[in-house]
């Protein structure tokens, strides 16, 4: 952003820059080595509205991270702010554990109005605590209690959270290295068209994945612990923005239903219009037995729930609890968000503008060999970067390029664009803009990302930034 040459304004800008740098230094000194976003995105946000974030240095950025998908309506949307103010001005209690309140009743009503009809008519809700990982834990615990079985079916590339059972179901072995929580998890192949584990890709690869799953479950010598549930993401997020074929989703529903295995859909990142339908499972037409929800349902504030078939509701009072499961402000913000998305059909908008962005990104890929694949659903988009100097593997896939991806992220930040990385080797540029993104903002995102890729590809190999901060 241009800065005026007036002496007073220059001095103020310098003070802001100095203050921002000081905050970043103190963060590095005080916070744990586990911090992540602060390392690759050294921005000190001080103001935000919609898709725009302003840093302490006065620079403005287009935010394509959106709180890892939390901000369906972007930063500080008026309907969210108004909902929070109404609760604050009403004198209503802000902390009520799991007691009934008008705010909570409005939230559950708004949520159930969005769910697949069968689940809404025969569902129960459990408020789990502040984060998606808490809801995943609750879903696994519920399934194990209801079935009396201890095993769990999960998928390669999965990400479900950082607490014990959720981490056990996550596919990243480095993340699980210090947690002995996956001894009863059976890992299954997730369809990954660009890097198909069967070397075929497409519908054939997805069908082989389904056949392998059914065979393993029915093989008396297969070594599978009797599963309490199958846990899957309708679109893998941290795994690299991988959407499976709808036919595969339907096969997973058939396989689990015919064997009496509850199907848990982790909609923490995919829900509330993100993938072009209100819930990602709607695209394939399946109805899971349990849905895990967080992020956008709280309207930018911490909230996590599971909704499940009423015949699974075998918990005794107090069997699952959490001090902060009654977050009234989050419920009010969530109600406003759910209703605004639904009433304005923002999921349809996400599908339309997402398809347009995918089309342009695929055009970009035609001019840059380092762009190996472009994929996504709605406004959940991934651009996989590859090392064109390396030899393809035995299936013809070009190796991932994590250092190039890190350079792209930094070049994008220099151009005022905040993006995230993910995928098996952190080589997938992930775009998660708010559903309120305008046509002009979408064009600006694509322009800045294209320029960042071109600059990063031209800069040659060097160490990835952000490692010491």
Alpha-beta classification = alpha/beta
Task: Examine the secondary-structure arrangement and name the CATH architecture of the domain at 96-343.
Answer: 3-Layer(aba) Sandwich
- Gap between N and C termini, in Å? 25 Å
Radius of gyration: 22 Å
Shape: globular
Instruction: Please outline the major beta sheet.
Output: 7 strands, mixed
Which range best describes the helical content: under 10%, 10-25%, 25-40%, 40-55%, 55-70% or over 70%? 25-40%
How many helices does DSSP assign?
A: 15
Q: What is the CATH homology-level superfamily of the domain at 96-343?
A: Type I PLP-dependent aspartate aminotransferase-like (Major domain)
How would you describe this protein?
The chain is an alpha/beta fold and 469 residues long. The chain is 40% helix and 15% strand. The chain has a domain at 96-343: Type I PLP-dependent aspartate aminotransferase-like (Major domain) (Aspartate Aminotransferase, domain 2), CATH 3.40.640. The protein is built from 15 helices and 15 strands. The strands form three sheets. Strands 4-10-9-8-7-5-6 form a seven-stranded mixed β-sheet. The longest helix has 24 residues, at 7-30. The chain is globular. Residues 1-5 and 462-469 have low confidence and may be disordered. Its cofactor is pyridoxal 5'-phosphate. It is an enzyme of class 2 (transferase). It comes from Actinacidiphila rubida. One of its GO terms (molecular function) is diaminobutyrate-2-oxoglutarate transaminase activity.
